[in-house]
Amino acid sequence: MKRTNELIVALAVMAVIIVVTWGIYAVGDNMPGGVTPFSKDVYQLHNVILAVVTVIGVLVFTAMFTSIIVHRKSKGQEPAKFTHSTAAEITWTAIPVLILVIMAIPATGVLIDMEETGGADINIKVTGYQWLWQYEYLEDEIGFYSTLDRDSNAARQINSGVDVHTVENYLLEVDKRLIVPTDTKIRFLLTSGDVIHSWWVPELGWKRDAIPGMVNEAWTLIEEEGIYRGQCAELCGKDHGFMPIVVEAVSPSEYRQWVADRKAEQAAEAGDEPSEVQQITAADEPAHNADQG
Amino acid sequence: MSYETTLSHDEHHAEHPTGLKRWVFTTNHKEIGTLYLIFSLIAFMLGGAMAMVIRAELFIPGLQLVNPEFFNQMTTMHALVMIFGAVMPAFVGLANWMVPLMIGAPDMALPRMNNWSFWILPFAFFLLLMTLFLPSGGPASGWTLYPPLSLQGGTNIAFVIFAIHLMGISSIMGAINIIVTILNMRAPGMTLLRMPLFVWTWLITGFLLIAVMPVLAGAVTMLLTDRFFGTSFFNAAGGGDPVMYQHIFWFFGHPEVYIMILPAFGIISEILPTFSRKPLFGYTSMVYATASIAFLSFIVWAHHMFTVGMPLGGNLFFMYATMVIAVPTGVKVFNWISTMWRGSMSFETPMLFALGFIVLFTIGGFSGLMLAIVPADFQYHDTYFVVAHFHYVLVTGSVFAIMAGVYYWLPKWTGYMYNEKLGKIHFWWSAISVNVLFFPQHYLGLAGMPRRIPDYAVQFAEFNMISSIGGFAFGLAQLLFIYIIWQAARGGERATDQVWDGARGLEWTVPSPAPLHTFDTPPKVDDSVTVHSDTLA
Amino acid sequence: MAEHYYVPHTAKWPIVGSIGLFVMMLGAGSWLNQAAIGPWFTLAGSVIVLVMIFGWFAQVIGESEQGLYNRAVDGSFRQGMIWFIFSEVMFFAAFFGALFYARMFAVPWLGGEGAGAMTNELLFPEFDAAWPTAGPAQLGGDFQIIPAFELPLLNTLILLTSGLTITLAHWALKKAKRGALVGWMAATVALGSIFLYFQASEYVHAYQDLGLTLGSGIYGSTFFMLTGFHGLHVTLGTIMLIVITLRCMAGHFSKKNHFGFEAVAWYWHFVDVVWLGLFVFVYVI
Q1: pLDDT at B239
Q2: pTM of the prediction?
Q3: Of the N and C termini of chain B, which has fewer Cβ atoms inside 10 Å?
């Protein structure tokens, strides 16, 4: 009698929890799948682990709420006397271990893949400064700074009077985008000129810290042309929220054209004054042109 | 003044200084416990007010109320005040009040040092909060004080570091006192495996505190010398490494996380059996699980810093070790549910908070497991997903457990029952608003919103507004909490000695309110008065 | 001996200590920020703390001599002291950790080993990993290190000997041989003082002749912070030894009841062991 009671309540509770959980997933945002082979792997890992914890959660909460509903003093329930069960305790130690091992295997695979930075066709050195990014294409010897665009910068001042909804890509647009080719293995070499920053574009599937005096490596291979936006992810001072990253992936031929144009432009600039890239060489020389807007 | 004669409690009281002197000079564990708890409540309100500033600025995109520097000072101070001012002192206060009562001791082992542990705190926090009024403002580099950013600060950093030193001294002395009390002051018959779980979790927490607070002191001392005395610990040009600070800091920081949750586990393990009217399930495995979590806490620190570019082997080790923590934590949750199973439950406010704890802490545990998966962490790290995660474990975890403990033991402290109806309103209001506050932050993080930013792109606007509304509601609910405590301190329905009909343990054998001096003569303890013993059935 | 656990009803010294620490820290913070008032506040705070320490200990010693403490109180003191020493061990662990991290990871990476290949190539192509080092920028200029098997070795022998003399003093105390006790204690104090004198002259030598300073990159940082904090602990330990010696001369402690003596002896052994770690990892290797 009591067993059936518990079972019926449990099924009802489980149904409610599943509906609620489904609702929670339906209203919210999920991680972007991204546009690189391993951003998709990461997305998959995320979904799998989310599914695993959801199933565990549904089971655990079903048991808990069934008990809350059935085993009440107000329903005249007499307390049982049991205090332990070795079999149960071994089971709920062993099963989680098994689940964790199963989770660890694909996670390890993806991680090993992500650390494989060798064999890149293009090497881009990324240097964080308070509060802008410097990009240097090591093979082609071109480089530039990338900083928050004018419109966003004007709108983000305190009590600027600008409705930020009218600014296109508010806080996620830069003056000069990082142009990269699709279907090409690109290695990023990240460092910083002052404090720790973190370079993050969600569509690429990772972030990596840019640390003064250290160079971190990461790579990507973008499969789709498009514009991908991100932000600095490590607190780096007052304008930490205002140093976005915009990556524009173009076809390899367009990329080669852009490189040629950019080289010509840079050569012209070099005639007048030292190029931007050479201006900042020592790591201890901070750039201040970010907050002049 | 000696213990040789058995004085009545009133006479004891008469010898006590009164007024301010009573509180400044006291050596009594109950009075010091009260001081800690009041201090913690004030810090909770202060830290909460800072959180309100943060949520108000984030209510809509664009900067409206504060400039980015002040915003960063608020996030930094909010964390420091909540961690070192609200949560830790609350647990120390509960330990001061309850540990001697639970093990049948006349007082804490080192009563004078107990006084000192507390009375350092107000001065430490004055030193910390004072920096907000310095010309250069307070610390704005996050509570973790990562160099080089933290070293850019103006005058504040020296005061902040010294304040942390003082808090560390206070915590270490507090922890030594609790450990020594537990190991040296137990009544005859109170064997280690008869101790209530709250005592067990505090024993292990005390060990963690003594082990890691000095490491924090070392880390911030290196910051100090790097800033003022020309050392190069965190400067690559001199052969150091900024990441080294993060390793040392998180060697402290991760055990610190468990310092803030293990006593919460203890409180929940006290409350569930009482209101389920059934002994705790798997007492021994609970003790082992607690010890395992404490051990593991020393070898998982770098999971806070997967994105710093550690070698592959390092990332893998810390991922595996972190995942393993899910096992003992799971054991605890399963044991709690088994304690409830086939019990005879009633749902007074402490039980409601305990049940809320189990559900919401488990959600925080799930997101923790997700964060352990390194490739996925490369996406989650430093986003609002992390903010949501640690607020689930700290607010609906630690803070809910503290509130559960306060409602549970308040009648023992004041002698009056709190207003049950208001208590239930407080619970439901808090439980709903806290989810409105923090759940949408998971979505924000997954959608790409970094943490610690004062302004955000417009696609994050909706969930930020929802979160802020939840935040204001949760803040308001805590004013009700203060009112309920104030009301119960002043009067109401008289509490019986046992207070709760399912309650067992030494603390329920003394009168309510507990007189200033209890167990001057140690009680004899056997299985009949312990709640948890496996041999009970 | 008292039957009940002694719980003092009031404590006046802790609040004095809190105020002293506060004034001291406020002063130190102001001092570091070049405020003229800083040194005076630091001094005033230190004086208050010293008064507190002497007052508090005098009270405890008085109570102990009155026989207010029973075995349980003695046990609490013992355990408290052990945990205090453990916390000190962990404080040193942080600095040893920094030393190991720098030597095993940071410096090799800067020199291009393992994960640091690109760090070295892009940022510090001139730098070769070696120990000792003042880093790629050679901060603090050229320096020489103090050879392990000269003064440091002598200091090691001095501290080890002092560990022996304090044990001999303990034996004398347990056999109630007051004269031998005071003699061995005096020897221990002397050895501690000689150690400190040598340490100080080593620092002078390092700064004046070797170019080795606190600012000499990561080597100077770890060297002076580790040996410096150790030196501070030896200083504290020596002061404690002097107090215990004076108490021995005043007839304090009995064959069975001498926790104060033992606590200081434990502390001294702890300082001794830390030195062995320093000698091996800072000087020799």
Answers
A1: 95
A2: 0.94
A3: N
